[in-house]
Design a protein that fits this description.
The chain is of the alpha+beta class. Helix content is 31%, strand content 32%. It has a domain of 104 residues: Gcn5-related N-acetyltransferase (GNAT) (Aminopeptidase), CATH 3.40.630. The chain is globular.
């Protein structure tokens, strides 16, 4: 059974999962890793969801305010050995629910073209491609997505 926990970026399990995510991204991002990494600090993420299976951390995700109406999803990751069990979907839905509870209208995110699994996951999760935003505007590898949130 998958259990979810709402917390913040100071949670030790989140820090450990993000370290594994960063190791993976260092490989897939290649020469662009340092550029992307500068925007992925976790020190001030106040909205983090952790997923546990049998009380062991299996995945994570977070969001931060992007503007008054939108949040930006950050640091989505599922341990490779736990993939295919619906963990990422549960985390993302919980993040969207939380953002909606706080009055946000939409969720945006950036992922890389090389993260094919992530791109397909966001499309399956009803995220639509949008124009690249902010620091990602000139990045060839970046894809940006948005989803309207359901009002609670």
């Amino acid at each position: 059974m998958i259990e979810l926990l709402r917390t913040d970026s100071s949670h030790l399990d989140f820090e450990k999962l993000v370290a594994q995510l960063d190791a993976y991204l260092k490989i897939t991002d290649g020469d662009e890793h340092e550029f992307y990494n500068q925007f992925n600090g976790i020190a001030h993420l106040n909205h983090v969801v952790l997923a546990y299976i049998n009380q062991k951390p299996a995945g994570c995700g977070a969001f931060k305010a992007f503007d008054e109406e939108r949040v930006e999803v950050k640091r989505m990751f599922t341990l490779p050995e736990e993939r295919g069990r619906g963990i990422a979907s549960k985390i993302l839905l919980e993040l969207e629910q939380w953002a909606s509870e706080l009055g946000y209208m939409a969720s945006i995110l950036e992922t890389g073209k090389r993260q094919v699994e992530a791109v397909n996951f966001y499309k399956r999760s009803n995220y639509e491609l949008i124009e690249k935003y902010g620091q990602y505007k000139d990045m060839e590898n970046s894809l940006c997505f948005q989803k309207q949130l359901i009002k609670v």
